[in-house]
Amino acid sequence: MLLLSPQRLSQAILAVSNPISIESAVVLGNQTSSNDPGTYRDGGWESQIGNTYFQFYADTLHCDVNNAANNCELSTFHANTLALSTSNPQVVTEFVTPYPAAVCDAGASGYRLHLTNIISLSSTTGFAFYVNISSDTSVDIDGEPVGSGVATITYTGSGQPSCSVTPQFWGESEPLWGTNGAIGHNLDGYIYFLGSLSSGAPGGNYSDVYVGRVAPGSQTTLSAYQYWDGTEFSSNRLYNPNFNGWSPSAVMTSAPQGSITYNNYYNCYIYLFPGPALSAQILASTAQTPNGPWTSPVTVFQGNNLYYAPVAQGHFDTSGKTLIFDMSIFSPIYLETVKLTFN
Question: What is the per-residue pLDDT across 177-200, written as a single tens digit (0 to 9) for each?
């Protein structure tokens, strides 16, 4: 029988009730570009530097009308492209046309990077987590994730942002930090980040989500990072197979990516993630702190396709009464924008 400490027991009790109630969930439509209609996106993270909001895309295809019917497989492809958000949640503006240019595309020799959302550090700088991916497709069709690290992004207000990559911090036996979202400048001053272990790693399990934190300004110092052990934050890093015996912050579903946002309507953190494979659902759990306890999930969107990588775009309504999110569609690959209205 599993015995819980008084603290863990109280957390488990607190985690039962999820306050989210949906009045409506409306599909606004596909995400488009104001100055380049030939772009097709995948995985668009909400990002911020100073007062400017961006979308940081995992993958971008550019194709013409003739090739669109073929799912753009013969077209120009880039990872890690940035676009400016606009007042319309469905529309972004490219920095470079007609082929959006990659930012932070230079990983270690033989590897490529996938970046997550940018956390603002000042009026001109921010940082993002990245996953290092090898070309080994024997484990994963898109290549094998072998670790994660951080990159600094600089934006002066004109031209495309620039990037400086810090050498990889964490290995493949550790959670891929940032892949389940990051959130900055919380009330306690820390930046929090979530991650899970790639299913391609031995013993990997996407559904166990762990959490860590770092103080702003210390993000390029590995020793400054702390990790939640179920009771407190510690400098001890989490290694597979038993992660020091620590419990995950949350058990979600078998999904490689989610996103975290703070909601002023419910006064709590919301974590969006896809439902089990082929469920055509987007789910949401809530917590009072990023390290949990997290509530049982509720369904916030039900459709008829395979959805993944739901990313909250909380800056469109800071009251929290509504929440915009983007989700990736598996076939053909593109981004769709959804507006939730809460009861």
Answer: 998 899 986 668 899 999 887 655
Q: Please report the pLDDT score of residue 11 as a whole number.
A: 43
Q: What is each CA distance from 188 to 39, 215, 262, 314, in whole angstroms? A: 39, 10, 14, 20
Which CATH fold would you assign to the domain 28-342? Tachylectin-2; Chain A (2.115.10)
CA distance 146 to 138: 13
Q: What is the pLDDT of residues 328-337, one digit of tens each?
A: 887 666 789 9
Q: What is the distance between the alpha carbons of residues 203 and 259, in angstroms, rounded to a whole number?
A: 23
Q: Is the Cβ–Cβ distance between 183 and 170 less than 8 Å? A: no
Q: Is the pTM of this model over 0.85?
A: yes
The whole-angstrom separation of Cα 301 and Cα 323 is: 12
AA identity, residue 162: S
Domain boundaries, the chain: 28-342
Whether the link from the prior residue into 293 is cis, omega within 30° of 0, is yes
Q: Are the C-beta atoms of 270 and 180 separated by less than 8 Å?
A: no
Which residue spans within 215-342 are E strands per DSSP?
Answer: 226-228, 233-234, 250-251, 259-263, 268-274, 281-287, 298-302, 307-313, 322-329, 334-342
Residue labelled with tokens 């892949």: 179
Return the number of other C-beta atoms located less than 10 Å from residue 322's C-beta. Answer: 16
CA distances from 317 to 80, 144, 193, 324, 339 (A): 26, 37, 22, 8, 10
Q: Which pLDDT value is given to residue 87?
A: 96
The structure tokens listed for 123 are 């009026």
For residue 141, give both structure tokens: 């069709």
How far does Cα 319 stand from its chain's mean position?
22
Long-range Cβ contacts of 159-164 (<8 Å, 24+ apart): 159/95, 160/82, 160/95, 160/96, 160/101, 160/103, 161/49, 161/54, 161/82, 161/95, 161/103, 162/103, 163/103, 163/104
DSSP 170-213: EETTS-EEEEEEEE-S-TTS-EEEEEE--TTSTT--TTEEEEEE
Q: d(Cα 163, Cα 240) in Å, to the nearest integer?
A: 31
What CA–CA distance (Å, rounded) separates 195 from 271? 12
Instruction: Report the helix count and the strand count for the chain, using DSSP H and E.
Output: 2, 25
